[in-house]
Amino acid sequence: MYEVYIDHDSCIGCGECKEACPEEVLDLTDYYPIVVDEEGCAGCGNCVEVCRQDAIFVNKVKEPLEAIV
Ligand code: SF4
Ligand code: SF4
User: Fold this and answer.
1) Rounded to the nearest whole angstrom, what is the distance from the C-alpha of residue 69 to the centroid of ligand 2?
2) What is the predicted pLDDT for the residue at 16?
3) Ligand 1 atom closest to Cα of residue 33
4) Domain containing 9: what range?
5) N or C: more exposed end of the chain, with fewer CB within 10 A?
6) Would you say residue 47 lies in a domain?
7) Does residue 17 lie in a domain region?
C-alpha cells in the first residue's frame, strides 16, 4: 500500500503528475492535484519522476493486518 503526499507550497499545478499516473490516482483542482483513489497507487514513481518542483512524494506504508479468526 502506498501513500501519496503533495506539497501544496511547492506545487505549481502543472498537472504532469496526473497525466503520468497509469492508475488514475490523481485529479487536478484549480490549484493543485488531489488524491482521488487512496488505495489505487501502485508505487510506480512516475508522478515523482515528472514533477519538476519535487512536490509529490510516494511512501510505502504497512498493510493493515488481517484479523485472525
Ligand atoms: S507534477 Fe508536481 S508541480 Fe506539477 S501538479 Fe504535480 S505535484 Fe504539482
Ligand atoms: S506512484 Fe504511480 S500509481 Fe502512484 S500516484 Fe504516482 S504515478 Fe500514480
Assistant:
1) 34
2) 97
3) 5
4) 2-60
5) C
6) yes
7) yes
Query: Would residue 66 count as lying in a domain?
Result: no
In angstroms, the Cα distances linking 19 to 15, 23, 33, 63 are 6, 10, 11, 27
Dist. CA 68 → ligand 2 center (Å): 31
Q: Which ligand is nearest to the CA of 25?
A: 2
Task: Answer whether 0.85 is exceeded by the pTM.
Answer: yes
In this structure, what CATH number is given to the domain that contains residue 39?
Answer: 3.30.70.20
The pLDDT profile of the chain, 69 residues, written as one tens digit per residue, is 999 999 999 999 999 999 999 999 999 999 899 999 989 999 999 999 999 999 999 999 987 777 665
Ligand 1: residue whose CA is nearest its atom 4: 14
What spacing in Å lies between the alpha carbon of 12 and ligand 2's midpoint? 18
Q: Is residue 26 part of a domain?
A: yes
C-beta 51 within 6 A of ligand 2: no
- Count of the separate structural domains present in the chain: 1
